[in-house]
Amino acid sequence: MAAPCRKIINQFVKRSLKCFEPRVIPCRWSNTVRNHTVEKHRHSPLSSTRELVNQQDSPSDVMVPREFRFVHPDFLPYPVWNRRDRVREKLEREDMLKRRAVIDIPEFYVGSIMAVTLADKNAPGKQNRFVGICIDRAGHGLYHYFVLRNAIDGQGVEIKYDMYNPLLLKIEVLKLEKRLDPQLYYLRDAPLEYSTFRLDMEPVSVLKGAQVPLNAIKVKMNPRPWCRRWERHNLKGVLPLDDYITEKMKKQKQHPQIEKPWEKHDLMLKARTSIDDREVDQIMTEVYKRKEKIQKEKFQKRGQEGKREVKKAQEVKK
Amino acid sequence: MAAFCIRSMLLRNLTCQNLISADPTLTSRVLVCHQQVRGRRRTCKPPSWFSKRRVSIKQDITPENAKFIKDVIIETYKKPESPLKDGPWSRGTWTPRTQRTGVLAIKLGMLPQWTKDGKKFITTLLQVLDNHVINYTPPDEFAKSMGWKPYWGSKYGSVVVGALSCEPHLFSKSYNNLFAKAGVPPKRKLTRFLVTPDAAIQPGTPLNVMHFRIGDYVDCSAKTIGHGFQGVMKRWGMKGGPATHGCTKAHRRMGSMGGGRDKAGVWKGKRMPGHMGMDWRIVKGLKIWRIDTKYNVLYVTGYSVPGPTHGYVRVYDTVLKHKREHLIENGNPPPMPTFYPEDGKEPIPEEYLDDELFNFNNESISYATEK
Questions:
Q1: Backbone angles phi, psi at B81, to 5 degrees
Q2: What is the distance in angstroms between the Cα of A37 and the nearest Cα belonging to chain B?
């Protein structure tokens, strides 16, 4: 046997033995407990504050509609792995569901036209109603927010609302539709006619169960200057921008460091910025169950109240 | 010999060390060398008195035997509700000078909450997981022990609190012996609190989130996030050099130092590159807004509790005078020395909320009816 071959084998054996050595925790983590260790201690039989696994929480064969996760993107937690915690996410979801039981938060998407009523101390009627197109929707859990845009007196106005703010009195969807892009901030650099909506607009009714209509309108942008370099954003809902940009800008746009063609193949990036499908299913099943339960309770309450009212009316008649 | 020891300790830059003679008859003689040192001990090596805790597990145990060991461990620590061996100690009364023990919590992260005025603010969630009192040392004994500092005098005793129970066969014998008195399984993490003698607490007492009450103020001390060896721009926020215009190898350097007529020379404490983070920091006077008794979680003001998610945090009553005033004025002292189940007669509710905090079960806030 040749000597170099033996050397390679020795190295291989050494490396494979390394995984059996006791793990050395680096100093940087010495004051921190790993996520799986915390979970172990929460369920450990030695623990005095043992958390029992609730059978109701475990996923069962409840069929959750496929659209449910796209209707409720706010229930997805923050995806950065070292900032996640199961109990915190659970408590957060509980708060969200409590709030959703009180106020009706309808289904809406970026591109839908909405009206929001907000309690305001300084407004004349102590409340303020704003109508506009939803240009963005982001944030995880209780941090979830959406942005409405409208042109009022020839001036573009944008308002950012926290979805779980208790000052929100009513959320209405006047026209339920989707657009081609996930964010519509480019309306800032488009003519105001694209973001002008009447404040007394009447709601457009949509058939229940029908697919959400897609508004494939292509916006004609204003000439530069713009608030962002829109030519680099690969916008779908915009007419071609070639007339507005210079040759140099076109060249720059195709530069690999700006175009970043590898990003769509980057699995690690995807793992870092999104949540695993199986986990999403688990969360959505839990939320779906809870929502159904809340709705049932609501119907029962309404039924009881209705019965009481009928009884009262009968007594009055007598 | 003692002089040599002290000199060697000075060389090793230890801040404080007590020497106890090996002869047990002379234990009352304590040699104290206390010297204040700027900054902290920046080394990865454990101190000389540190003994090894963990024991390597033998791999040649069959799965049946491993399961048998686990069952035995669980059975030995399965006890009636009270783990206190001798009769319960008498409970002291709270005075404005009292310093109670704290708890060792784990940081879970941040969540926004709203007040009843509709103001949004951030809270930090701290979970008190499986905490027990491991040891109490009265002041006179504590003064003879290691780690005591002369300026504490004889005011304080010490309470050792542990969090997260583990299986004993993972640890060395000497470490396991620490828990014999309390009768609890060995803990993953220990910490020490200074307490006044009226807040003496019996070893083996479980501590939970009910140790604190809504509206009380606490201090949190923890180690900050470690960043390793960092340059001057990240560590101290200096500006660095220019990116272009003929700048060579000075983009992230600090500027000149040591100039100046009278003040010339590099003074002690000059901000330079070095180890960043992993320092003990205390945040004082954080209000408790909300308590979840089901999961043992505290909601505490702000996002400035040091450390990463799942870092250990020491939580104890605040030392700020103006935030302890309401305890004296209203005459509602905190539970002494901690909350016992018999204190709350009714079944404890799952959640406590501050009066100013918005309850998500309530209707939306509206000002229309105020007229």
A1: -60, -40
A2: 10
